Amino acid sequence: MTDSLESEINSLHLSSNIIVDYYTAPENAPSSINNDLDAENSSNVVMENLSEDYLKVYDGILVACYSDHPLIYKLRSITNAKILGIFQASIIYALQAIDNKSDKVAILTSVDEWEQILDNAIINFLGVGSFPNDRFVHTLAANLPILKLHEPDNYSILMGKIQNLVNKNVKIILLGCAGLSTLDYKMKNDFPNIKFVDSVKIGIKQLISFIEIGNV
Asked: Where is the signal peptide (predicted)?
């Protein structure tokens, strides 16, 4: 998955003065993150594995798990680097990308454990008391394991889920898992009137802009 994300970020042809390094959690971390417990366990493993001295060389860190991941907040407590999660980046983008009030946004995710978790994350991020039905449709899971999302045999399942969201007037679909990264172009070809948001690519661009603003 890390190799796939590196390929996606390389496709952006970022400025030559921007150096991007990649980090994968060690083997004792969960192999994939499917719920809040996995997220907490993965953050603990990463925090034990990374040193403050190692982090000092970075101006920004993108946490490439699509959730309100505890690692975001733990990293902020030990480094002055800008820290951004791909979930937060995609929501920020979606809020400014809605063209009409009747258009809706939805998250397409991996397994159904994430549906309520991500709906709650939207509520918390927007600071509202209940799910914002005026702008969002509830998160929809493909019910595929994260590491199976890229398999060609499963693409038709994703297409069925997307059609379900389109039928609910969704115009912007946030790819709610790093495992869905790289599929946005293919999906756009099949649904040309829908905006598919690759949260990793949006995330790295936003992170760079936050760093640049902080240096002004």
From this structure: none
